[in-house]
């Protein structure tokens, strides 16, 4: 089987020619090749005894359907009028083999010389292989068509049965927002989309997520940017046509929504009560506060010293009380923006006596330290003493130079800020601990500190991060410090950060507390005009 010079010129660059046989073109109607279901042909072709040439082509089928195979053949005479067609290496057909005019070109759609035995292929979407094998001398093959329209009969070179596929994608342009724009609130994403046939739908994507679909112009989507993070965000619009072609356009924008500032503090906790359940246990209860956004938690204080942070419920149990001791409890509510209510009315309670007579004195305070906090103050701190019942308080003794020591304060905490001192003067301190039964420990070690020579003006601050592996959203560490007789406190945020500002220059003892953790105390030096960083890990 050979090609005419005219057919050779028409097939140039389209198929591979092997020996003297070649295929000028494969023209697909609508889509491409499948697995043939003609059981009579379900076998690969057996190679002829004589080599009349072979050509192989790969055809891509887009839509699964049934195709009629038409071949344009030239038969030199009545004895030579067929060729072999093999599909996907497993289906062989003898195309023609009778009823063909000699010495002329004819369109043939049947096999084995039987006009009623049409060659029909039921093809799946995807690539298929067609192999054309020369079977008889002088037979020429100009064209093979896979025709999905069963009513179409090729004329001349068969262009009347061909369908030109739509491969042009729609053209899409995002008209709003502009690339690199900063957006907030509700933004109208708008786009234009055109196609050589028709646009069937337009899809809108934000950061790769499909958020809306439109089937008719104008193509728009109202994007609520408050539901997206404040960051660089990708906006993409895709348009589709009936042939499945997709066009797209993309723009990168910056989302920047500023949350409204909450400046309203919660209401003051009401109906605060304190009940002494035992000499060493007091239960504090109160009514829930209200807030314009939401109450985040409550700070419970005893005699103006912070005891704990309550983020679940409206109750706190104090297990650090002493026998026969009067206490005042107050509660402060706070919200997520850091707004604190005023302190509640104090709930007063006196604990009962201990069940046994206490004759054992507390242990001697250890770890005593004295640090000058400017020219008129010395901060003294120490480690807590222990007692068989409980330590009630600590007496602080001070001596100037080589003079005798005198008691200057009694405190229930483990630190004391000694104020109104003279500049450039040395002071010595020691501490004793006592319990509710009047038992007093021995004297601690004596420590000395010298006040600064001049008065320094200005304010500073302290900030840092409190690491706490048991922290939950409802249980955040509290940072507490005493400043000139006043308590300053801050509750860490969700990342453990805290900040206490507007502090006079000097050295301060700072307590770091959390429910379920050991309280830690650190000395922080505050410098005017600066913020000192102090990080703590609670365990």
Describe, in plain words, how this protein is organized in 3D.
- The chain is mainly beta and 539 residues long.
- The chain has five domains: 5-161, Galactose-binding domain-like (Jelly Rolls), CATH 2.60.120; 171-255, Immunoglobulins (Immunoglobulin-like, Sandwich), CATH 2.60.40.10; 270-350, Immunoglobulins (Immunoglobulin-like), CATH 2.60.40; 366-450, Immunoglobulins (Immunoglobulin-like, Sandwich); 459-538, Immunoglobulins (Immunoglobulin-like, Sandwich), CATH 2.60.40.10.
- Helices cover 1% and strands 50% of the residues.
- It contains one helix and 41 strands.
- The strands form eleven sheets. Strands 1, 3, 6, 9 and 11 form a five-stranded mixed sheet that branches.
- Strand 7 and strand 8 form a beta hairpin.
- The longest helix is centred in the first third of the chain and has 7 residues, at 5-11.
- The radius of gyration is 47 Å and the shape is rod-shaped.
- It starts with a helix and ends with a strand.
- Mean pLDDT is 86; it is low at 1-41.
């Amino acid at each position: 089987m050979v090609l005419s010079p005219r057919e050779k010129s028409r097939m140039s660059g389209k198929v591979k020619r092997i020996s003297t046989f070649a295929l000028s073109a494969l023209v697909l109607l609508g889509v491409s090749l499948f697995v043939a279901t003609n059981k009579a042909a379900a076998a690969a072709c057996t190679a002829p005894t004589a080599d009349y040439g072979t050509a192989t082509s790969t055809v891509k089928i887009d839509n699964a359907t049934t195709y009629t195979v038409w071949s344009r053949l030239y038969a030199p005479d009545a004895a030579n009028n067929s060729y072999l067609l093999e599909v996907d290496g497993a289906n062989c057909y003898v195309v023609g083999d009778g009823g063909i005019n000699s010495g002329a070109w004819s369109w043939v759609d049947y096999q084995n010389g039987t006009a009623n035995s049409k060659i029909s292929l039921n093809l799946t979407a995807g690539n298929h292989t067609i192999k054309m094998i020369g079977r008889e001398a002088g037979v020429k093959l100009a064209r093979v068509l896979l025709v999905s329209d069963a009513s179409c009969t090729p004329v001349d070179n068969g262009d009347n049965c061909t369908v030109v596929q739509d491969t042009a994608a729609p053209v899409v342009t995002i008209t709003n927002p502009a690339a690199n724009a900063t957006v907030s609130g509700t933004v109208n994403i708008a786009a234009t989309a055109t196609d050589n046939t028709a646009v069937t739908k337009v899809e809108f994507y934000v950061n790769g997520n499909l958020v809306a679909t439109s089937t008719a112009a104008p193509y728009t989507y109202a994007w609520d940017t408050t539901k997206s993070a404040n960051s660089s965000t990708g906006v993409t619009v895709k348009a589709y046509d009936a042939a499945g072609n997709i066009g797209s356009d993309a723009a990168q924008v910056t989302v920047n929504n500023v949350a409204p500032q909450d400046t309203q503090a919660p209401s003051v906790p009401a109906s605060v009560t304190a009940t002494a359940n035992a000499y060493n246990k007091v239960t504090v209860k109160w009514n829930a506060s209200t807030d314009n956004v939401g109450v985040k938690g409550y700070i419970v204080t005893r005699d103006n010293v912070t005891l704990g942070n309550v983020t679940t419920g409206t109750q706190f149990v104090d297990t650090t009380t002493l026998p026969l001791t009067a206490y005042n409890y107050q509660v402060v509510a706070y919200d997520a923006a850091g707004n604190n209510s005023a302190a509640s009315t104090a709930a007063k309670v006196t604990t009962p006596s201990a069940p046994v007579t206490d004759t054992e004195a507390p242990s001697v305070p250890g770890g005593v330290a004295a640090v000058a906090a400017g020219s008129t103050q010395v901060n003294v701190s120490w480690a807590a003493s222990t007692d068989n019942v409980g330590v009630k308080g600590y007496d602080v003794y001070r001596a100037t130079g080589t003079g005798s020591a005198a008691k200057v304060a009694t405190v229930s905490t483990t630190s004391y800020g000694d104020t109104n001192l003279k500049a450039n003067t040395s002071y010595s301190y020691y501490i004793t601990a006592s319990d509710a039964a009047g038992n007093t420990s021995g004297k601690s070690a004596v420590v000395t500190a010298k006040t600064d020579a001049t008065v320094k003006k200005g304010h500073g601050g302290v900030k840092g991060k409190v690491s706490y592996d048991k922290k939950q959203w409802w249980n955040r560490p509290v940072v507490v410090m005493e400043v000139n007789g006043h308590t300053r406190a801050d509750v860490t945020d969700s990342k453990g950060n805290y900040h206490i500002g507007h502090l006079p220059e000097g050295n301060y003892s700072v307590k770091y507390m959390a429910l379920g953790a050991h309280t830690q105390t650190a000395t922080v030096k505050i410098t005017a005009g600066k913020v000192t960083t102090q990080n703590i890990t609670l365990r």
